[in-house]
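=== Given protein ===
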Amino acid sequence: MTQAEIKLCSLLLREHFGEIVEKIGTYLIRTGTQPLRMIGSDTGLSLDQVKKALCVLIQHNLVTYQLQKRGFVEYEAHCKRVLRILRYPRYIYTAKTLYSDTGELIVEELLLNGKMTMSAVVRKVADRLTETMEDGKTMDYTDVSNTFVRLADTHFVQRCPLVPEAPETPDVPPPPAPTLVINEKDMYTVPRLNLIGKGKRRRSCDDEENGEHKAKKQKQDAEGAEPPPDDGIYWQVNIDRFHQHFRDQGIVSAVANRMDQTSSEIVRTMLRMSEVTTSSSAPYTQPLSSNEIFRSLPAGYNIVKQVLDQYLTLLADDPLEFVGKSGDSGGGMYIVNILYGLHPLIYFPFSLRFGSRCARIFRLLLRKKHLEQKQVEDFAMIPAKEAKDMLYKMLSENFVSLQEIPKTPDHAPSRTFYLYTVNVQSSARMLLHRCYKSVANLIERRQYETKENKRLLEKSQRVEAILASMQATGAEDVQLQEIEEMITAPERQQLENLKRNVNKIDASENQVDETIFVLESFIESTVKKP
């Protein structure tokens, strides 16, 4: 684990959970597994603060615990899981694209709360959607439940492990920490709930004043009420499934750039057919027959079976091996090579850093393995001077290495071959390290911009709150204009500049995270599984 990763984790934890949780999380990331009292003594925090911070981290799946043989519990933070916080906006946007606003809010609530029951998610999302609707319209619980079921069916949300039911024995004390288990068959099984109702709007100020005396009674009713039917069945976002979707989209895009739109649509259909049956770490999809692919093509895509077979043959014969042929039954059995499909994606971040010509040399060295400088110039069709400059530039930054092969023992330069080669995994790790540093710098810059304009932001929020309250009471336009003039023209210009800068920083974070995902996926695909 590099210092850049630790720093980025620290910044993300502080930004989302506060200083105490950040201190505990960073300490566990740096030191590894630790017991409760060691965490408290080394961080200087009270045991109560440590326990609350660990509860937050465990709730959000950032820390796990394990019961040791000697009877004490150790806690371990997961750096990779903390770094996924950076990708939360992309998960939410993907859910919105696939399942509209309802899916977006379901995923957002699960990410914000870590784990929730289905009934709680449905009620919260229905209330939030009702708030955005016109007066008199409400969101039905059934509509939200149906979207939740669709998310579970496509494995975007999954059940959390549960404490197994065990007979109570008064003589045997309970273990220091429960062991959580989950049956894989039940991981995506949605409980049958009869949720009847509609979303509720927030009460106005007058309603709140009139309803204050009912608060105690409502609390007592809630305590005496029966638990919901899905009590104890908690759900969380399946991050691996989202990553599988991002990876599939990247492969489809690469096929479209390499071939044409029809080829990419065929590959998209194959990936969609096997998205649930293929694990996120599998090197290739399940074999699919040509007849199955033909039947599953989108309705508006009018291509005959003979043309489909020609496209599949063309994809299977392509040197990049996006699609492979695994048999001849059913008109031919085909698979999508996920492992090979990720390789072209590595060229994109490299071309962004060094330019398209350097990326051409890089791709050439990957294919040919070892080349002399003259061979690079000839194969890449780049002038000698430019090729030399590009090779030395990549060599100075350790993206390309130089291997000497002497003809004689004296290593005389005139009798030595100088071959350029690429260690692609080392290059990917180097780019990944720089991406982590870039994101950390962007977060620090955004925090600096916000801190420098803190007073102006607070003033703007106060003015907006006053305007909102006056509009609710039906104030005149002249009064509203007077309130708006509390912020001067230079201050308004400063606020616009701040908003524009923060938006640029946020967009840059998302773009760098896309590169991080490509690099991480490539590195994971090339690591040999035991």
About this structure: The chain has five domains: 3-77, 79-164+179-201+230-237, 242-336, 355-422, 430-526. The mean pLDDT is 82. The domain at 355-422 is CATH 1.10.10.10 (Arc Repressor Mutant, subunit A). The first strand starts at residue 34 and ends at 35.
